[in-house]
Amino acid sequence: MQSLATSSSLTLPPAAALPRATHNLVDDFFGSRESRHDNHRLSLAESVSPPPYVECPEYTFRAPEPVTLAMYLFKFGFFFPPFWILGVIILMSPLRAPPAGPPSASWLPEKTDAERQMIIERMRTTELKWARRCLYALVAYIIIGVVAGVAIWATLRS
User: Fold this and answer.
1) For 34-73, what is each residue's pLDDT tens digit?
2) Which residues are listed as membrane-spanning (predicted)?
């Protein structure tokens, strides 16, 4: 079997014209700027910058999810579990969009109606996501409470 270097059908790419530097994995991991192990440090003129992005990946276009009441109810429910009940009530509410027309133009007046509807839809899906989390947390809290209550009752009874 021929080696790749001597094969006539395959040619090796040219060697990169980058400065050779010895790397220590520990220094690379911890981000040490100066290393007593490296004999050569790259200067700013020698450093290689990454190529410019031609097309940004999809995840860079996602905006952070909107902050909603259900999100706060879920997070603060760990300190005061009845907040989860309020989150479940949000899950059962109809979540209607504000009426179209002049009053809705006062909310985000710089946006078009289509953009406002898109924002409302994002808020609605985020609100439902956090309201479902409130429901799951409430159910888990009730199950843990029932199991603890039955365990205490069983130990006191025996």
Assistant:
1) 545 545 555 555 556 666 656 655 555 566 888 899 999 9
2) 69-91, 134-156
CB of 21 closer than 8 Å to CB of 40: yes
Instruction: Please name which of 142, 121, 128, 118 lies closest in space to residue 70, comparing C-alpha atoms.
Output: 128
CA dihedral 29, 34, 38, 42 (to 10 degrees): 100
Tally helices (H) and strands (E) across the chain: 5, 0
Cα gap 124→95, rounded to integer Å: 7
- The DSSP 8-state label assigned to residue 144 in this structure reads H
| Tens digit of each residue's pLDDT (9 = 90 or more) over 71-80 | 999 999 999 9
* Contacts (Cβ under 8 Å, ≥6 apart) of 58: none
